Amino acid sequence: MTDSRRRKGPLVADKRQPRRGGKTPAGKGAKTTAKARKPAARKPARKMARRGGGSGGGGIGGAIRRFFRWIFGLIWGFVWRVGMVFALILALAVGLTYSTLPAANTLVDGRARGSVTMLDREGEVFAWRGDQFGGVITVDTVSPHLKNAIIATEDKRFYRHFGVSPRGIASAVRINLSEGRGPLSGHGGSTITQQTAKLLCLGEPYEPETGQTEAEYETQCRAGTLWRKAKEAVYAMAMEVAYTKDEILMIYMNRAFLGAGARGFEAASQRYFGKSANEVDPAEAAMLAGLLVAPSRYAPTNDLDRAQNRAATIVRLMEEQGYLSKDQADYAQAHPAELSEAAAARAGGYFADWVMASGPEFFTRNTTEDVIIRTTLDQRIQTSAEEALKFIFQEKVRPGSKAQAAIVVMSADGAVRGMVGGRTLRVNGAFNRATQALRQTGSAFKPFVYATALEMGYSPLDTVVDEPYCLTVPGSGQWCPKNYTNKHYGRVTLTHALKDSLNVPAVKVSEAVGRDKVRHVASEFGIDSDLDAGPALALGTSESTLIEMTGAYAGILNGGSSVTPYGLIELRLQGEDSVMMGSEGGIGERVIQEEAARQLTWMMEKVVTEGSGRRAALPGWQVAGKTGTTQAARDAWFIGFTANYVTGVWMGYDDNTPLTGVTGGGLPAEIWHETMMRVTEGLEPEPLPMTAPARPEPVAQPRREAPRDNSLGGAVNELLRGIFGR
Question: What predicted TM-score, i.e. pTM, was given to this entire model?
Answer without folding.
Answer: 0.74
